[in-house]
Amino acid sequence: MSASALAVLVTSGLTGSPGPAAAGAAGADRAAPLARVSNACLRSVPERGSSKPVKICYTLFKPRSADRHHRVPLLMHSHGWAGQRTRDPEAFRSWLRAGYGVLSFDQRGFGESGGYAHVERPRFEGRDNLKLIRLVSRLRWVTQDGPGDPRLGALGGSYGGGYQFLGAFLELQRTGKPVYDALAPQITWHDLSGSLGPQGVPRVQWALLLGGAAQNSDALEPKIDEALVEGAATGEWPDGSGPSGVDMYRYFKKNGPAWHVSQGRRLGIPVLLGQGTTDTLFDLRQGLQNWHRALTPRARRRSIFVGYNGGHVLPTAQTAVPPANSPQGDPCSRELAGGDFTALTRAFFDEKLRGRDRGLTGYGQVHLATPGGTCTTVSSVEPTASYDVGQVATPSGASTWLAYPVAEGPISIAGSPTMTGSLTTVGVDLNRAFYGLAVGPNPAEARLVQGNVLPLGTTGVVTGEPWEQQLPAVAVDVPEGQTLYVMASAVSDVFGGPGARTPGAVVLDDAVVHLPVVE
Fold this sequence. Notes:
There is one protein chain. The protein is α+β, with helices and mostly antiparallel strands and 519 residues long. It has three domains: 3-191 and 260-305, Rossmann fold, CATH 3.40.50; 199-251, no CATH class; 385-515, Jelly Rolls (Sandwich). Helix content is 25%, strand content 28%. The chain is built from 15 helices and 23 strands. The strands form six sheets. Strands 1-2-4-3-7-8 form a six-stranded mixed β-sheet. It is globular, with a radius of gyration of 23 Å. Mean pLDDT is 90; it is low at 1-8 and 10-29.
């Protein structure tokens, strides 16, 4: 695993650090301590087969302004996969100066905390989360809305976004009310198997990187590490029938919002959702599923969704197969709050946790960055128009792709497109194809919009079966003189290895692409 790839995993857990303006505080302000800092560990539930409690370690930042007469809201914070908690108060300067307390913790299996990382399972990480909240509910300098109910927000991205949904849903399940008052998860998942193995096709590069990063601290249970290697080697998301004997669908069943939604639970609290449009691990669709499925309609009216160009992006993104456009930037946070996502989060929490009117707009809407650096705002991301494409065939060559015209520019797209048709395959083993939307002046120069594809995965011969294929969620303005294409590829850098093999052609006849067109 390359150092740059590991850095992507670790730094995905955003620290909530301030922007340049906050970091440039006056010298006198820097001389005074930002907060009283304390480090400690609590005892949480044992691992399987053990009676020994597992320690969960944390750093608590109490701002200078806080005491029992001047209570403040508290923000939970945690790291990305294979990372560790933040101990330096400078990382939270803007929050501490604004009068927020912060508790940053090492998740189970990482940093100084013990046990294995179970990837946000209610039985383990969920119980850790509740114990930390109980600790916060006893702090006399933290605003309390009732017994055991601190005024609580949450920060973090990727794995540091997963704990937020876990804690909120688990409290909702236990008590009928999420103890968190507002969340700000970034680049996190809705359904882990749907993220890591969509259509049963593993994201091989990410599976290897996640497993490799965890090996540095022996964080994963050995059988789960074996299962990730199995998926990468076989090109099939493990279902219990392979050499590891692990059913990853079952293992990850409860590890995310999708399970709670399936049980009829939705969060009724305001959430600021940030998701990467160019994210090739937890793609934009995962965030939009959280927006539409994990929140109640009333909560969405008090929430904001921002898609920025960024997220989990492999170091090879600029030389990807098929060829991709992978821009960076966050025009929507700038448009909404005059700064980056941290500035937007500050304004959001000020309004939701402190009741201060910051003049923030954009509630109840989805704001998506385009590759051109503009922000498109929509109320719905569902398809609104359909375009006949004819036959979409995947080449059988190992490194080729084909682009099929869908619509001529100018046209603007923002949301979650799909493609339907009649599926035929000729392979007797695994049949794989990868699809995405692309833009260019001609098929040869077309580039994937925001660098993403989603797979089609079947086994054996299929003849004329009706098929609906999800395409990556995107936001793009196709200018006049350019064409929007659907790109079909036999291979994908992200899915890689055996998961990308196409023993025979995969063909969609009478294909229709359904687009969320912005009027």
